[in-house]
Structures are given as structure tokens and as C-alpha cells.
Design a protein that fits this description.
By secondary structure, the protein is α+β, with helices and mostly antiparallel strands. Helix content is about 25%, strand content about 20%. The termini are far apart.
Length: about 450
């Protein structure tokens, strides 16, 4: 607390977040667009734009002035678009290419957290840009600010022949749970999650607030895929690898576990006292928490006990990429199936993502269970022309964002324009997610 009675930076930010959930005030952004940049109040520029994935555009090195190590802001914005698991479909890539040409001077950033960043966006074009992205099944919500950032995973999920499992459906479910959910709008600081099924941990899960890495065990003579759980990882000041908890997280326990960790973070008021020490890792670094204490609190929150951890094989530190990866042998000759559970006639949401049924399915990939009734999913073979009835949200990704590069969008757009028939996938899951799009949005 301040000894002079003056409000500190942390106190001001926390007060503003308590007073307004910016996700519920898209109408104000539209009003700013009509009235111009000068109509935007300071609390929006410094706080409320961020949950929408929007930052003020600095001038870089501070050539136009500034203080505290930050360059003076110019009347433009950086807009960060989240791409869960780095998976995009072709029509989304074309939408991004067009948006960058129209609003961002023809250049975009692909970030290490699988986001796409647009610079030099004006306030007058911001609502139009957001609407354009929503119509393509993309969003900027939660990609900045004190909320859940883009959830990362292996960009080769589903096609890497050496992966333990394809964990991208869990990324989609976790994003649906946390993004746009008012219960998780006001976190102490940014909250980063990584869920991966690959063996080389290419997305570096150990430096996330929550890192889930696939492991296998044998239970009653049958192989089962689950996840190791690490919490409290992070880089920047006082870097820390995530603390591994004594847990084997089953597939259908992943989402409750993520929710439980998010609730622990949200309710840790001690982390709200300083913006510089507000990440989850500071529970371990400054406030005496241990992995055992965190585990006990997590199990109390989720209401069930987790199985003890099993031995895992962390990757070597030298090579953490997929250069020279092997495709699944039956990718081109596989039969497309859609899985449904026995209770599908009772609740429509039991239909899960399309998957590949191969001639020799991986022995360690246990069948998924229904999100509602927990019954095993069974494959249902579709006729050869069934793909024609699926929407764009069911197509296999045409692009996978995995590396930090800066490329002219025109070149990427030209390359993607040669893509012909897309393949089925779960990538554009936004249309059927629980994210509450603003009712005033034109979609």
C-alpha cells in the first residue's frame, strides 16, 4: 500500500478492472471510431483496450519522446489475433492477408505464442477489422491484458507421426472455457497455458503458467494417454521453470484442472499488490507456496483426487523443433470418420471433432469420452461425399503458426491461394464455441 495516500499503478489498474468488464463494452469502441482518436479517454488507452487484444502503438525507440523506458504512443494501435494451437484454415489465412493489406500497411508479425499481430491500425478502422475477423471465426479477445493469453500447442498436432496424441481439441475446449468468460476477465496478470502431445515439447510448456505434456501409462493391462502438469513457469524477470505436480491428469480431467488453476490464480489477492510480481510463479518465488501446497489446493477446488504422476521423458535441450518430422503413414489413404457417443440422440454436443481412423491405429491413443455423459466415443464411417456438407469450421488447417517471423503478407497470401480442397479438422471451432460474441457485431 502507498504510504502517501497516492494511488499506485497496481491499485489503479485493479480499480479500473473492478469498475468495468471491457468485453461488455464493445459499443464504446464503436463510438470512439465515430468520434476519432481524440475522444478516447486515458483509461481505455492504458487498460480497457487490452482485453480486446489492442495496444497503443508506440514509436519504437522513443524518438518522439516518452518516459519510464516506453516510447510516446502515436495515434495508431497494435491488434493481436489469437490462433489457438497455431492452427488456421485457408479462408482464415486469406482473411488475415486481406486485413493486413487493408489496415496494417501490408505487414504482419507471427509471434512465438502463435498469434498474428497487426500494426498501425487506426481507431476508425478497428470495429470493421474486429467484425471481419469474427466473420472468419477469429478473435482478438484476451490476447492482451490480465486474462488468458493465446493457448499454445504443437503446430503439427494430428500429423506428426511421432506424437503421443493430438492435444489440439483440448486447446479448443480450454479457450472456449476461459476466453470471453466474465469469471476469468479480471486475473492478477497475464495467464499463459500450453497443452501439447508432441515428444519434443516444441512449444516450451515448461515456461508457461500451466504446462500440460502428454505421457502414457499402463492401467489394468491397457495403455492410457494422460498429461503431466506443471504450474508457475515464466520468463522475463526472475525466470522459473514450471513446478511439476505429483499428478497424472487424464484426458477428461484436463479442463477441470485448468479451471482450478485459473481460479487459484484469480483468487490470489496477494499477487495484485505489485504489477511486477503478479504472475503465478510468484506464489512460489515470494509467498512460500510449494508444489505440494498447490496440489492440495487444486484438488480442493476441482473436487477429486488426481492419480500420482508417472515417469516421463523430457526432450533433449539441443533440438526442440520438428525439422525432418515424419508424417503419419496413412495420412493420404485414411478413412475420415466422425465420432459420436451412445447418447448422441439425447444431446447434440456429443459429436466430437473429425479424426483419422488408420489401418493400424496407435495403440497408446485411448478413445476420447463424451464431454457431457463421459461415455466412450465410437467412430461412425461417413460416405465418400460427406465432406461437402461440413462447414469451414471442420476443415484441417491450411497454415500452422509456430515461429516468430516477419513476412510480407502479399507473399503468404499468394502461397496460400494455391491451396485447393481443404481437409476436415477441428480448427475453426470458434463458431460453435461458448465464447460470447457481442450481440451488436455484424457476423
Amino acid at each position: 500500500m502507498s504510504t502517501t495516500g497516492q494511488e499506485t499503478k497496481a491499485q489503479r489498474v485493479e480499480r479500473l478492472k473492478r469498475e468495468k468488464n471491457a468485453w461488455e463494452h464493445l459499443d464504446e469502441i464503436r463510438e470512439f471510431a465515430r468520434k476519432g482518436y481524440e475522444s478516447i479517454p486515458a483509461e481505455w488507452l492504458g487498460t480497457y483496450f487490452r482485453p480486446w487484444g489492442v495496444y497503443t502503438q508506440g514509436d519504437g525507440a522513443g524518438a518522439m519522446g516518452g518516459k519510464g523506458g516506453e516510447g510516446k504512443a502515436v495515434p495508431y494501435f497494435m491488434v493481436r489475433i489469437r490462433v489457438p494451437n497455431g492452427l488456421l484454415v485457408s479462408h482464415q489465412v486469406r482473411t488475415l492477408a486481406d486485413a493486413v493489406e487493408r489496415y496494417a500497411r501490408g505487414v504482419a508479425d507471427l509471434t512465438v505464442r502463435q498469434n498474428v499481430q497487426l500494426h498501425w491500425v487506426t481507431i476508425e478502422s478497428l470495429p470493421e477489422l474486429l467484425d471481419k475477423l469474427w466473420r472468419a471465426g477469429l478473435t482478438t479477445m484476451g490476447s492482451c491484458g490480465d486474462d488468458t493469453r493465446n493457448i499454445t500447442g504443437c503446430p503439427l498436432a494430428g500429423i506428426d507421426g511421432d506424437e503421443i496424441c493430438d492435444a489440439s481439441p483440448l486447446v479448443a475446449q480450454a479457450t472456449s472455457l476461459l476466453v470471453g468468460n466474465p469469471a476469468f476477465y479480471n486475473l492478477p496478470r497475464k495467464f499463459k497455458i500450453c497443452i501439447t502431445g508432441c515428444r519434443v515439447w516444441c512449444s516450451y510448456p515448461e515456461v508457461n503458467d500451466v504446462g500440460l505434456t502428454a505421457v502414457t501409462r499402463t492401467l489394468n493391462g491397457h495403455p492410457e494417454v494422460g498429461f503431466s502438469l506443471r504450474v508457475g513457469g515464466g520468463l522475463s524477470t526472475e525466470p522459473l521453470f514450471g513446478q511439476r505436480l505429483n499428478s497424472f491428469v487424464c484426458w477428461n480431467q484436463v479442463i477441470p484442472v485448468i479451471q482450478g488453476v485459473a481460479e487459484i490464480f484469480r483468487d490470489a489477492d496477494v499477487l495484485r499488490e505489485s504489477r511486477e510480481r503478479a504472475r503465478l510463479k510468484y506464489l512460489f518465488l515470494r509467498h512460500g507456496w510449494t508444489a505440494a501446497r498447490f496440489m492440495a489446493e487444486l484438488e480442493r477446488r476441482i473436487g477429486f483426487k488426481l492419480d500420482p504422476m508417472v515417469e516421463e521423458e523430457p526432450p533433449a535441450d539441443t533440438y526442440r523443433d520438428h525439422v525432418g518430422f515424419t508424417l503419419r503413414n496413412s495420412l493420404d489413404t485414411a478413412t475420415w470418420v466422425r465420432q459420436s457417443c451412445a447418447g448422441a440422440s439425447r444431446h447434440s454436443s456429443c459429436s466430437s471433432r473429425p479424426t483419422l481412423q488408420t489401418a493400424s491405429p496407435r495403440a497408446n491413443c485411448a478413445p476420447p469420452t463424451c464431454r457431457i455423459c463421459s461415455s466412450p466415443m465410437s467412430p461412425t464411417i461417413r460416405p465418400a461425399n460427406w465432406l461437402e456438407s461440413w462447414t469451414a469450421s471442420d476443415y484441417r488447417p491450411a497454415a500452422r503458426v509456430s515461429h516468430a517471423v516477419r513476412l510480407p503478407v502479399r507473399a503468404r497470401s499468394s502461397a496460400n491461394s494455391r491451396l485447393q480442397k481443404p481437409r476436415p479438422s477441428r480448427a475453426g471451432w470458434w463458431r460453435n464455441s461458448k465464447i460470447a460474441y457481442p450481440s451488436s457485431t455484424s457476423r
